[in-house]
Specification:
Bound molecules: zinc ion
Low-confidence stretches: 1-15, 22-34
Strand content: 5-15%
């Protein structure tokens, strides 16, 4: 998923979603304001045409059999030096930034106060304007947040803690744990409540436990950041320093009781069905009844305790931690949750300094309009997305994407038939699951209703709080109702895609079905190599080490016989070892188990796109020797695949990514994947001794 791997928001859905491409790419940043919105909408600047297969990006001085990534991307690297406000910049960012310009145009237009605005236009326009009015935000200082700070200060005893945490969760504060709705693992047609680990300010739990010098230094820098935020909130420096130590100590304790990211990838580790009454009895030092009343969560019924070990530790912590320390911890998370565009620039800048600059290497803050545009997409994505889709996603492109998806699903059917390691019995089940996959393309059939959400012009912080309240209420209202399979977890302008394990569906937002990933103007070789491989990637997630544990209806139910399961695991282990061996930055290897699902999806997805494209080319009697831009159709297929991954990444971000991103860095998503597909080497007549040719390729699907 896009964005700083934000610990701010807890998402149950994120656990069962597997996204295509981009993680931790855009670190938040902010900067000087531009002309006030609602005056003159800026023109979208002319940008160079983005192409799916672009021969001008190729570096012919590099042997494609030696380093295909460099061969395909060097021209792009030369043309696109890493911008100072980005922590990595690639083709995904290129499209993301173009989409953001388009969204800005829509928002600037909607920000002009006019009686003719629709209800949704009023909301997106006023929210954008409120975010852009930095002088108003600065002038207000911490005043809009004061009632919430007072609420924490007023906590008199541990008995009041559950009610306070319940309230903080409603307004989007990541205090201690998360709670939300999700599909029951045993019965995907039922929506129940989920309680999961949370409460950390660093990207994930291992940041608190690693003992190497760099990790120790990062923790010191994190403590310094927390101290500065407390100081900005008015604490004397000595107190701010000691409060920062308190925060780090509490978070370290929570982190140690949490699952690792690798453990979280196995749904069996999160599947602990219980009911609210039993969970209430386990939390002997925390009144769940008071919590659910304040959080507006169900007071009874089935639920999932995703991490029992974590909640046991939380229960102990609630009993043995002095109240003033708990209040300090809550104050930090309240400030942290709103320290973006809702609080004065001093908070915003300090937050950028740690999360974007120190953790990910950004050199310059992003301009405020960029952040405000992304904020509205995040908060009101389907109101903004509705306008975006009408302007930038014609029905013909939706149709062509759907046809590609169906062709790739057919290719998978044939691929399953041809597998030499799977029994006939499991193949029947695999095909049942494949044929039950629901294809969602572009945008929702039914748009989200924002009529109950109030957006007030000039109240950036209040709008953020009301948006969290609205989202929380919408999320919890799903409990006990039939599952809405038409709902989307990504907004229409998003440059990404996902597979939903419990929905058994693939989702491709309109914002991604654009050049340089897909173009109605380019041929199938380019489109199948690029977007086709992504469609195959998402589909393969249904059959990766995580997705394969869910049946055709999205239930966590084993449909594999023991022998096939062992053969799958043996083949997958080949890839675990292959990626474990890659040293992404000096001293940091990739984590083969953490990245396994994505690596399986990359390899399987490209293979399926290749099979589907060959079939299409054959049916069309395509001349396989005819060159376009100097390359044959099959060569262009592979080049289009590689060119989607052209990305420059700062070393800081690469380190963060190697340690906490389930996706391998882009260079390996190109070269390592292609090394496992001997068909690639044939297209370029590579010698057996070439670097892109390996003796024992891995293959599962
Ligand atoms: Zn993926």
């Amino acid at each position: 998923m896009f964005g700083l791997s934000s610990p701010i928001r807890f998402s149950i859905a994120a656990i069962v979603l597997q996204a295509a491409g981009l993680c931790g790419v855009l670190a938040s940043a902010q900067g000087a304001s531009t002309a006030p919105p609602g005056t003159i909408p800026p023109k979208v600047p002319e940008t160079p045409e983005l192409r799916v297969f672009d021969p001008s990006l190729i570096d012919t001085t590099v042997d494609p059999c030696d380093n295909f990534y460099r061969f395909s991307c060097n021209g792009w690297f030369k043309r696109n030096p890493l911008p100072a406000d980005q922590t990595s910049y690639g083709r995904f960012t290129e499209l993301f930034e173009l989409n953001r310009l388009h969204l800005r145009q829509i928002l600037e237009e909607a920000a002009v106060p006019a009686a003719a605005r629709s209800a949704n236009e009023q909301k997106i326009g006023d929210e954008y304007a409120s975010c852009m009015e930095v002088a108003t935000v600065n002038k207000a200082g911490l005043t809009p947040l004061q009632p919430e700070l007072d609420r924490i200060s007023a906590l008199q005893s541990a008995a009041g803690l559950p009610q306070l945490i319940g309230h903080l969760h409603v307004i989007g504060v990541n205090a201690f744990f998360g709670m939300g709705s999700g599909q029951d693992y045993a019965d995907s047609s039922a929506v129940i409540s989920f309680y999961g680990a949370g409460g950390l300010g660093l990207p994930e739990r291992d940041y608190y436990t690693r003992m190497d010098a760099k990790s120790v230094e990062l923790r010191q820098q994190y403590a310094a950041h927390v101290r500065k935020i407390f100081a900005l909130a008015g604490e004397p420096d000595a107190q701010a320093a000691s409060d920062a130590e308190t925060v780090l100590a509490i978070e370290t304790r929570l982190a140690k009781a949490s699952l690792t990211m690798t453990e979280e990838r196995d749904p069996q580790n999160l599947n602990h069905p219980t009911d609210v009454a039993s969970f209430t009895k386990q939390l002997t030092h925390f009144s769940l009844a008071d919590y659910v009343a304040a959080a507006h969560a169900p007071a009874a019924g089935k639920m999932d305790d995703m991490e029992p070990k974590f909640f046991a530790e939380f229960n102990a912590l609630a009993a043995d931690t002095p109240l003033n320390k708990i209040k300090t911890y809550l104050r930090w998370h309240l400030l942290h949750a709103y320290a973006g565009t809702s609080l004065p620039e001093s908070f915003d800048r300090e937050t950028w300094s740690f999360y974007a600059h120190i953790l990910n290497g950004a050199e310059k803050q992003q301009e405020r309009w960029k952040r405000c545009t992304s904020r509205v997409d995040d908060e009101l994505g389907e109101a903004l997305g509705q306008v975006y889709v009408a302007r930038y996603f014609p029905p013909a492109e939706k149709q062509r994407t759907l046809e590609m998806t169906l062709a790739i699903e057919q290719a998978m059917d044939k691929d399953i038939t041809a597998l030499d390691w799977m029994s006939a019995e499991t193949k029947v089940k695999a095909k049942e699951k494949l044929h039950a996959v629901m294809n969602k393309i572009g945008y929702p059939d039914n748009w989200r209703d924002y009529s109950k959400l109030e957006i007030v012009r000039g109240d950036a912080l209040g709008n953020a709080m009301r948006t969290h309240q609205f989202d929380q209420a919408r999320d919890l209202a799903k409990i006990g109702k039939p599952v809405d399979k038409g709902e989307w977890e990504m907004t229409p302008p998003t440059v990404n895609a996902y597979y939903g394990s419990q929905m058994n569906n693939v989702n491709f937002p309109a914002g991604y079905l654009q050049p340089p990933f897909f173009s109605g103007k380019e041929d199938d070789a380019a489109n199948y190599g690029d977007m086709g491989s992504t469609i195959g990637h998402e589909l393969t997630h249904g059959f990766d080490d995580e997705g394969r544990q869910f049946d055709k209806d999205g239930n966590l139910k084993n449909w594999w016989n023991a022998d096939d399961e062992r053969k799958f695991t043996d083949r997958a282990d080949c890839m675990v070892k292959q990626y474990d061996a890659i040293e992404a930055v000096p001293g940091v290897h990739l984590n083969g188990k953490l990245t396994l699902g994505e690596n399986l999806a990359d390899l399987g997805g490209l293979w399926l796109a290749w099979l589907a494209w060959l079939e299409k080319a054959d049916a069309a009697h395509l001349d396989m020797a005819a060159k376009t831009g100097g390359y044959t159709p099959d060569q262009r297929f592979w080049i289009a695949y590689a060119q989607q991954w052209c990305t420059q990444t700062r070393p800081e971000q690469l380190r963060t990514q190697a340690q906490s991103d389930p996706h391998a860095p882009d260079e390996y998503r190109t070269n390592t994947v292609l090394q496992d597909l001997p068909e690639f080497a044939k297209s370029f007549s590579c010698r057996k001794t070439a670097a892109m040719v390996i003796q024992k390729p891995c293959r599962v699907w």
